[in-house]
Amino acid sequence: MANEILVVIGHRMGKGEAVARGIEKAGGKAIVIPGMAADMKLGDVMKENDATFGISFCGSGGAGAITAANKYGWKVKSEIRSIEGACQALREGCKVVGLGFMDVEDLGYQLVQTYKQLHGE
User: Fold this and answer.
1) Domain boundaries, given as residue ranges, for the chain
2) What does the pLDDT look like over 5-30, one tens digit per residue?
3) What does the alpha-carbon distance between residue 37 and residue 85 come to, in Å, rounded to a whole number?
4) Residues 63, 85: contact at Cβ < 8 Å?
5) Pfam families attached here (predicted)?
6) Do 51 and 7 touch, CB atoms closer than 8 A?
7) What number of other Cβ atoms are within 10 A of residue 117's Cβ?
8) I want to staple 19 with a disulfide (CB 3.0 to 4.6 A). Which of 15, 28, 47, 108 is the partner?
9) Helix locations, 1-121, DSSP H
C-alpha cells in the first residue's frame, strides 16, 4: 500500500479502542482522541495529522462529525447506525463519518477494507 490509511476517532465518552483495533487489524493506523467530548476535537486532530478519514461517535451521531465538516469543508454523513451505513458513507466520498455509540472492532475493520477497495489498495 503506497499511502498509510490514518483514521482519527473522536468518541463523546472518551472511548474508541475497539474500533481502533479493527482499523489496525485491517492494516490502517488509528488515533483515538482521549477524554470526554473527544468527538468535538475530531476535525482539528484530523487536520493536524492529515488523516485519511475520521469517525465521530456520540448519542445522535452528528455533533462532532458536523462540526468537523463545517469547520474544514469536508463531506460528511452523520446519524449512521450500522457498519454498512458507515461503509456507504465512504463510498459516497465522505471524509467524516458520524455514528451513534458503536465502538466495535468490526466497524473499524470494515471501514478500512472499504477504503482499500475504493482506492485500489
Assistant:
1) 6-118
2) 999 999 999 899 999 999 999 999 99
3) 23
4) no
5) Gly_rich_SFCGS
6) yes
7) 12
8) 108
9) 17-25, 42-49, 63-72, 83-91, 105-118
Average pLDDT for 54-74: 93
Confirm if 116 and 5 have CB atoms less than 8 A apart: yes
> Residue 11 belongs to what H/E stretch?
strand 6-11
Look at domain 6-118 and name its CATH class: alpha beta
What does DSSP say about strands 76-80 and 53-57: parallel, antiparallel, or unpaired? Answer: unpaired
> pTM for this structure?
0.95
C-alpha cell at 108: 473499524
**Residue listed under C-alpha cell 476535525:** 43
CA distance 47 to 24: 20
